[in-house]
Amino acid sequence: MRDVEFPEVPRPDEQARRQAVARQESLTKPVGSLGRLEELGVWIAACQGTCPTRPFARPRLVVFAADHGVAANGVSAYPPEVTAQMVTNLLTGGAAANVAAANAGVGVRVADIAVDADTPGPIAGHKVRRGSGVIGREDALTEAEVVAAVQAGRTIADEEVDGGADLLVVGDMGIANTTVAATLAAALTGIEPVAAVGRGSGVDDRGWMRKTTSIRDALRRGRPVAHDPLNLLRVSGGADVAALTGFLAQAAVRRTPVVLDGLLTGVAALLAEDLAPGAARWWVAGHRSAEPAHDAVLRQLGKEPLVDLGLRLGEGTGALAALPLLTLAGRALGEMATYEEAGVSGP
Amino acid sequence: MRDVEFPEVPRPDEQARRQAVARQESLTKPVGSLGRLEELGVWIAACQGTCPTRPFARPRLVVFAADHGVAANGVSAYPPEVTAQMVTNLLTGGAAANVAAANAGVGVRVADIAVDADTPGPIAGHKVRRGSGVIGREDALTEAEVVAAVQAGRTIADEEVDGGADLLVVGDMGIANTTVAATLAAALTGIEPVAAVGRGSGVDDRGWMRKTTSIRDALRRGRPVAHDPLNLLRVSGGADVAALTGFLAQAAVRRTPVVLDGLLTGVAALLAEDLAPGAARWWVAGHRSAEPAHDAVLRQLGKEPLVDLGLRLGEGTGALAALPLLTLAGRALGEMATYEEAGVSGP
After folding, report:
1. B99: which chain A residues are within 8 Å (Cβ-Cβ)?
2. What architecture (CATH level 2) is domain A14-54+332-342?
3. What pLDDT does B347 receive?
């Protein structure tokens, strides 16, 4: 699949990073006393290429929505039609992500990548197909669909950055998508199905057994191609994960920082870092999900999440919950007085 | 000290709590998928006595500023005059707390309880004294000063609630105040000085030894009265801790939820719960501080903090960093669509 090639990923700006480290020491607080927020502030300065930092002018959430063939195995507490219903709920502002986005001052975009229903034109412009193959017994996508989905994600990232987005937040929504994500997480990190499987949307014990079996079957087909991101997406993935992979890589190419959400976006991040090495420098992990495979994914990404509150909702909600910490980190570096300005004696 | 008596503390509203638990199950998300945020939403409903929850209309930070005699022992990286300088910085908007408060939509009040300098009239109205005794060899306060400081905190809480505050955030600022707080934490939780001592504002190794010695000496005088909150405040405390104790107890009496900050506010919380049993039901722990004694305090309070980012700045910054999680929890419960409203199929 040579159609998918990313240019070299730029590094966050080293000069701005150094200026930010120095500025942290000049602000009216004991050095290091804002802990992780000081590191975050430095990272924001490096991503923005400027110090003091600027407030984020246009943070944007993109929720990648898709159905998955494996839902037919009864791996979710919800019927498949809920994916399309939740697209409508997101568009009309009633979903958790809408409230979390409003709370964090973030604009919301929904992208239908593979919902198994008709959705309104403006959100279906990058739709690749409806649903996906049942990954325990057939490929999720064709090769052409993988390429189209990655390209869809790239295009969406370009559209957002061209539209002025200076901070991107990613989310996912679709019945059975944690079955797909757990399969990919197991393939990429080497953990066993029983360690990767979670309750997802709250499946009961019998559903949990069906989900574990589905992951085991899918993993049998996926493990042989686990070293090859695009083939893994084709065999065991879905158009949503592929689009997120393209989106995350392209955001880095466009020098735009991203807040990751839970398991599915973390899996896409692992794949994107493989396709576009160095992209991970442009991402921060918003939260640690209650999905057990997420921890292994975060460790492999080398990312320590900002919050750990037992969330397992998706839609970008964990990233949005953490977002005010990011804005605070940036604003502290940008807006606090220095010792000199405030006339405060230093240590 | 019979002058300090609190009326019985009311419980958060049980009917609203039950309605909130039921409402969580009706919202368009898998039950429990917002994790800790769902519990927080329920707590907010119970505190407000209404479900759905209302947005917080007037959240307010009160920073209790004071000097401490023990600063003369060289326990801080900063000279004592920094307390008064930082009061000015807080009043002119350059401190970390100002930025964190703006980021969270919170109004800021500074209360000079015992700053060893003249401060502007409006913030000095509840001043009890200048500084405090050197707690390793003399009492921190007189009996009358303890009563006056607790009463000052009560009055400030009343003023804030009467002024419309519906969520309170507490902070502290003052050179050497972590030496006092670590002493009180050791007295109240039974941990040893060497386990309680932290770097505070970033004291060096020699200062750390002086700080540990100061805590050990102070603890020798404080431990015999550790079971008696007001006498402990008199012997080993300070007017800021005493005022915070009164403030936290009175906030609960006035049915107003509070977000706790780090070590010093946590110690005041332990004392306030002793003076006004049940008050702790009205508080949430904002963060886990990098100060080592804070963890023991949180465990004794039975509070799991919302964020854990290595902060050790004080001023309420840890509580303010966590505040958007609280507003999100309340808004999710209040603003998300139900399955019925959104036409989404349930599990």
Report:
1. 328, 331-332, 335-336
2. Orthogonal Bundle (1.10)
3. 83
Provide the mean pLDDT of chain B. Answer: 97
Residue in B313, B323, B338 to test binding to A, most A beta-carbons within 10 Å:
B313
Say if the Cβ atoms of A335 and B99 lie within 8 Å: yes
Q: A8 to chain B nearest CA, in Å?
A: 33
CATH for B59-323 is: 3.40.50.10210
What is the rounded CA–CA span in Å between residue A285 and residue A260? 5
- pLDDT value for A1: 61
Q: What is d(CA B313, CA B262) in angstroms, rounded to the nearest whole number?
A: 9
Q: What is the pLDDT of residue A300?
A: 98
Confidence (pLDDT) at B252:
98
Q: Say what the pLDDT of residue B128 is.
A: 98
| Cβ-nearest to B311 among A28, A34, A79 | A34
Q: Closest residue of B to A40, CA-based? A: B309
Note the ipTM here: 0.96
- 8 A C-beta contact, residue B31 and residue A200: no
Res B1 pLDDT > 70: no
Across chain A, which has 347 residues, the per-10-residue mean pLDDT values are 85 98 97 97 98 97 98 95 98 98 98 98 97 98 98 98 98 98 98 93 92 97 97 98 98 98 98 98 98 97 98 98 98 97 92
The answer for residues whose C-beta is within 8 angstroms of residue A23's C-beta and 6 or more apart is A45, A51, A52, A333, A338
Mean pLDDT of all residues in B24-43: 97
pLDDT tens figures, A239-262? 999 999 999 999 999 999 999 999
Domain with CATH 3.40.50.10210 in chain A: 59-323
Q: Do B332 and A96 touch (CB under 8 A)?
A: yes
Where do the DSSP E strands lie in chain B? 59-66, 107-114, 167-173, 258-260, 283-285
Determine whether the interchain pair B95/A30 forms a contact, defined as Cβ–Cβ distance below 8 Å. Answer: no
Residue B303 near residue B313 (C-beta atoms within 8 A): no
Residue B188 Cα distances to A320, B103, B278, B286, B301, angstroms: 38, 34, 18, 21, 11
Q: Which amino acid is at B254?
A: R
With an 8 Å Cβ cutoff, are B328 and A342 in contact? no
B343 to A88: CB separation less than 8 angstroms, yes or no: yes
The sign one gets for the Cα dihedral A309, A312, A318, A321 is negative
What does the pLDDT look like over B79-90, one tens digit per residue? 999 999 999 999
Residue by residue, DSSP assigns B180-205 as HHHHHHHHHH---HHHH---TTT--H
> Minimal Cα distance from A203: which residue of B?
B347
Among B89, B308, B313, beta carbon nearest to A337:
B89
Q: Where exactly does CATH 1.10.1610.10 map onto chain A?
A: 14-54+332-342
DSSP symbol at B13: P
**Dihedral sign from CA coordinates of B161, B164, B170, B174:** negative
pLDDT at B2: 59
pLDDT in tens, A200-242: 888 899 999 999 999 999 999 999 999 999 999 999 999 999 9
Q: Can you tell me the mean pLDDT for B131-135?
A: 98
Per-residue CA distances from A9 to A151, A278, B156 (Å):
17, 6, 54
User: Does B52 sit behind a cis peptide bond, omega within 30 degrees of 0 on the bond before it?
Assistant: yes
Structure-block tokens of residue A106: 């973030």
Pairing outcome for strands A107-114 and B167-173: unpaired
A197-230: string of b/e by CB count within 10 Å (b at 16+)?
bbbbbbbeeebeebbbebbbbbbebbbebbeebb
Active site residue A315: yes
